[in-house]
Amino acid sequence: MSEEKILEQLRRIADSLDRIAPSSRSEPDIDAGDAFVWQAESNSLRLIPKVNHVGMSMLQGIDRVKDILLENTMRFAKGLPANNALLWGARGMGKSSLVKAAHALVNQQLDHSLVLVEIHREDIPSLPTLMQVLQKTERRCVLFCDDLSFDSDDSTYKSLKTVLDGGLEGRPSNVIFYATSNRRHMMRRDMIENERSTAIIPSEAIEEKVSLSDRFGLWLGFHSCSQDEYLDMIRGYLAHYKIPISEKEFTAEAIEWTRTRGSRSGRVAWQYIQDIAGRTGTIIE
């Protein structure tokens, strides 16, 4: 075979290898925006141009936890010591809304100093990789996981424990972790009781399961709201969006709305607002 034919075949082989080789991944540009979603399958950050959030003033009935989380977030954004936070409790009472509102307000006051990075529950095992990405930036990053909970046979909570507090490297100084959960210990009560009844040393088994929550310096509890608090939430929305409806009319409707839903919460209040805005032709943005 001539030298020219050999070179031609080598070029074809090289072209084939280029086509099947995985494309090189560039480092995520964390300076490109203020909010991202972690995509574990590609080890990349997807930019969120506009975060879906409500203003801090719109969150009613949670004044105490609102002040605590905002102060903690503000300290962290300024480079001061701050704690990981677990927001736990009743459904629909504004846990995730508070995290997003705090991020927006801090960035408004401190000129986009804070990055919000959301990681999905199923991607928790990829946390060490994400930490390596975030520690390369000088920006302060709030790592956020919504609706965090674990099943009895789920061992991924151990990797979260290591990232939050343990390990040789520990948590990067520019990263803080906020999580929401319906349960304080992120496991169902029946799972904890089952561990207690079947373990050889019950106290040690329970300690292993619930010690994850100890990694959070702040435990912020959210509880079901009263009827007055529920109506105050709706009044705030009505005033903000200038929805034309009388006090007497919306009060009767809003109370009936809770009966059809079987609960009172900020989420139920917002669902009612969506309904009344549609009926009155009011645009909500």
Q: Summed up, what is this model?
A:
The chain is of the alpha/beta class and 285 residues long. The protein is built from 10 helices and 7 strands.
Estimate the helix proportion, in percent.
40-55%
| Molecular shape | elongated
Strand content: 5-15%
Counting DSSP H or I runs of 4 or more residues, the number of helices is 10
**Strand sequence of the main sheet, in spatial order?**
2-1-4-5-6-3-7
User: H/E element string?
Assistant: HEEHEHEHEHEHHEHHH
Can you count the beta strands? 7
Outline the low-pLDDT stretches. Answer: 198-202
Class by alpha and beta content:
alpha/beta
Note the gap between the termini.
71 Å
Main sheet record = 7 strands, mixed
Average pLDDT confidence is: 83
Chart the SSEs and their pairings:
Elements: H1 3-20, E1 35-39, E2 44-47, H2 63-77, E3 85-89, H3 95-109, E4 114-118, H4 127-134, E5 140-145, H5 157-164, E6 175-181, H6 189-198, H7 202-210, E7 218-222, H8 227-241, H9 247-261, H10 266-280
Parallel strand pairs: 1-4, 3-6, 3-7, 4-5, 5-6
Antiparallel strand pairs: 1-2
Helix pairs in contact: 2-3, 6-7, 8-9, 8-10
